[in-house]
Write a structure and sequence with these properties.
Blueprint: H1 24-34, H2 43-54, H3 60-73, H4 79-93, H5 99-108, E1 121-123, H6 132-154, E2 162-163, E3 166-167, E4 179-182, E5 189-192, E6 202-207, E7 210-215, H7 226-238, H8 256-266, H9 270-281, E8 285-289, H10 297-310, E9 327-332, E10 337-341, H11 348-362, E11 379-380, H12 387-401, E12 404-405, E13 417-418, H13 421-424, E14 425-432, H14 438-442, H15 447-463, E15 469-474, E16 483-487, H16 491-500, H17 507-527, H18 540-552, H19 564-569, E17 574-578, E18 586-588, E19 597-603, E20 608-615, H20 623-643
Parallel strand pairs: 6-8, 8-9, 15-17, 17-19
Antiparallel strand pairs: 1-10, 1-18, 2-3, 4-5, 6-7, 7-11, 9-10, 12-13, 14-20, 15-16, 19-20
Helix pairs in contact: 4-18, 6-7, 6-11, 15-16, 15-17, 15-20, 16-17
Length: 649
């Protein structure tokens, strides 16, 4: 779903060397406490920006109606003012007035499966091994790299990141390891074991649907070397050759209410409860996947993206997962690798920082061979499968990988089969090699804003209209900050995309409109982190806060939240995120609405990696088509700028 992005190059800067009196924990606490608290923006400002953002996406009649509702909402002494005061009181009492609400509404109360609908995936560059030996060697080195990064988290020596000269909240780094989502009947929870009296010393390894507890530290607290981990992975591989085991992990792919019910049945048994607890408590999970069926090279990237996101189905690798686990690295026998992560704990940037560190680490040569001390056999996690649990597993398999009918065949006109989750996902990768962020920079334009305008142009060329567009932006400048929304569809972007293919508009005018649209997006973005500033333009989280405040105060829902325009504004046909990485990879996620697209991108210096997702059940959307139009839009925008070079001052 949402992925906080970092709009400028983040400048790492280590903690100052502490005095001998200053503990590690107090250094982290001092940094966190020094961050500003998330402010509540002025009501008038938010409502003005809301009206402005509606203009390109609603009709004039709808806009006029909404303007009237907004005016009623903000009258002196009215409901808007009362809710605003309630939010301001909340902000004075809490570390972050939004963070708990956001965690609940965006994630823990969300009842769709986390697979595809919520958890992002990531494809890493294909490794050059093609056998079990290579797979296990790489997995061992990867595990060693994650433990190396974990040492920085544990000792709180992770460099503080900066954005625009301001330090960022580092809290998310402390949530991604040793944590797990736990299903509940109406609301899930996230449990973090890293600060318990006995923090976990093991990871979970899954092979052939079988789960193992692998201790990755010696009794003296030193981590195992990659040689030692490799030996342990070989033991796991050899003792899990039988594939006739029930894929218990597939239960975690189900609708959250169904999974919560199955979960309570599963953990009634003591053996099952201990196995589940071991997985939940583990530092992270490594999934040793079987190779996927052979496909041509041009389809392969999209197939691997699916493998990372959902496992490919119950007959392939979907049973080789515990989707509630915050962090799962996936290493397949054919060289495919990547990860999937449960989104409640963190946005993309902390995950990417970890990935960049690990990939660099895997490239380091082994300087000395490790002494081969005898190590205990990794513990196999056992599950007692009752007929009821077996039935739950079968239902989860069907939901994920098999089509089912929407109503009985005896109905007069039976509907077509409902596609399973995997059949319904339409995902494609676009490796755009014509230019990278180097070109927009050479034109003194923001690469991110340039890409966003290309997305606006691609969408307009297909559908002949603008749509509500979500681009996530980081609020990590604030204590416990998560994300807010950049609204990429503006009147400036709409004017530009309408003009682009209009023969009556001169090329010189088109260049001006393109530059103006890019600058307008950039201005919105630059102001976003500084919500205290009078010109701060983010209004989405503030509106959400007012709505949740109304629910909490038990007042009837204000009309502006029951309005058609509000529904249109919150229906993000384009849900987008820039997740920059040093590694040549790309993140991806499913669309957030049935008739929408999920678009993620990593702009490298000389190329851009894109992922585009849609749902096959919607006849109007097509991921390959949007990717094609996006490529064309980027090339057309470059050609336009190159044909009218800026005068050199």
């Amino acid at each position: 779903m949402e992925d906080g992005q970092q709009k400028e190059k983040v400048k790492p800067l280590g903690f100052l060397k502490p005095s001998s009196m200053m503990t590690v924990s107090s250094r982290f606490k001092t940094h966190q406490d020094s961050l500003p608290r998330l402010p509540v923006p002025p009501l008038q400002q938010t409502l003005d920006h809301y009206l402005k953002a509606l203009q390109p996406i609603v009709s004039e009649e709808e806009w006029a109606q909404t303007k009237q509702l907004v005016e009623e909402f903000q009258t002196a002494g009215g409901v808007g003012e009362r809710l605003q005061k309630g939010l301001e009181r909340r902000a004075r009492k809490m570390e972050n007035w939004l963070s708990d609400w956001w965690l609940k509404t965006a994630y823990l109360q969300y009842r769709q499966p986390v697979v595809i609908y919520s958890s992002p995936g990531l494809v890493l560059p294909r490794q050059d091994f093609v056998d079990r030996q290579g797979q296990l060697r790489f997995a061992a080195k990867l595990i060693e790299g994650v433990l190396d990064f974990k040492a920085r988290i544990d000792h709180e020596t992770l460099p503080v990141e900066y954005l625009g000269g301001k330090p960022l909240c580092m809290n998310q780094y402390y949530q991604i390891l040793s944590s797990c989502r736990v299903p509940g009947p109406k609301q899930d929870s996230v449990t973090n074991f890293s600060k318990t009296k006995k923090p976990p010393m093991h990871i979970t390894v899954v092979h052939n649907y079988q789960f193992f507890e692998l201790d990755v530290y010696h009794s003296d607290g030193t981590p195992l070397t990659s040689d030692q981990i490799f030996t342990q992975l070989e033991k796991i591989w050899n003792s899990s050759l039988q594939t006739n085991k029930e894929p218990v992990g597939i239960l975690t792919s189900n609708h959250r209410n169904s999974w919560a019910k199955a979960y309570s049945t599963l953990i009634k048994d003591k053996v099952n409860r201990e196995s589940v607890h071991s997985i939940q408590k583990s530092i992270f999970t490594v999934c040793l996947d079987a190779p996927m069926p052979w496909v041509s090279e041009d389809v392969r990237r999209s197939q691997v993206a699916g493998q990372m996101l959902h496992g490919g189905g119950s007959k392939l690798n979907s049973g080789n997962r515990w989707f509630d686990k915050t962090l799962q690295f996936i290493v397949a026998e054919d060289g495919s690798c990547g990860l999937v992560y449960e989104h409640a704990a963190a946005e993309g940037p902390p995950i990417i920082t970890l990935v960049d560190h690990v990939i660099e680490f895997t490239k380091k040569p082994e300087l000395v061979r490790s002494p081969m001390v005898p190590l205990p056999m990794p513990k196999k996690l056992r599950f007692n499968i009752t007929p009821e649990i077996k039935s739950d597993i079968e239902k989860a398999k069907q939901n994920l990988s098999m089509a089912g009918r929407g109503c009985p065949v005896s109905a007069p006109h039976p509907p077509p089969p409902t596609p399973s989750m995997i059949q319904d996902l339409d995902i494609t990768m676009l490796m755009f090699h014509h230019f990278g962020k180097d070109f927009p920079k050479s034109e003194k334009l923001s690469p991110d804003s340039f890409i966003q305008m290309a997305l606006q142009l691609a969408y307009y060329r297909i559908y002949g209209q603008a749509c509500a567009t979500y681009e996530s932006a980081s609020l990590r400048m604030f204590h416990l900050g998560r994300t807010d929304t950049i609204r990429s569809a503006s009147m400036d972007s709409l004017t530009f995309v309408k003009a682009m293919d209009n023969p009556d508009v001169t090329e010189h005018q088109k260049v001006g409109l393109l530059r103006k649209a890019v600058q307008a997006h950039r201005a919105y973005t630059e102001q976003l982190p500084f919500l205290q500033a009078i010109r701060g333009e983010a209004f989405d989280r503030h509106l959400l806060g007012l709505k949740l405040q109304a629910i909490e105060d038990l007042v009837s829902m204000p009309d502006i939240f029951m309005d058609t325009s509000y529904a249109i504004a919150m229906h993000f046909n384009l849900s987008t995120s820039q997740v920059p990485a040093k590694t040549d990879c790309v993140m991806f996620f499913g669309p957030v609405v049935p008739d929408g697209y999920g678009v993620c991108y990593n702009p490298m210096e000389a190329h851009i990696n894109f992922s585009v997702s849609a749902y096959n059940s919607c006849a109007e959307t097509n991921a390959v088509r949007l990717a094609h139009y996006l490529e064309k839009a980027l090339l057309d925008m470059r050609a336009l700028l190159q044909s009218h070079p800026q005068a050199k001052l």
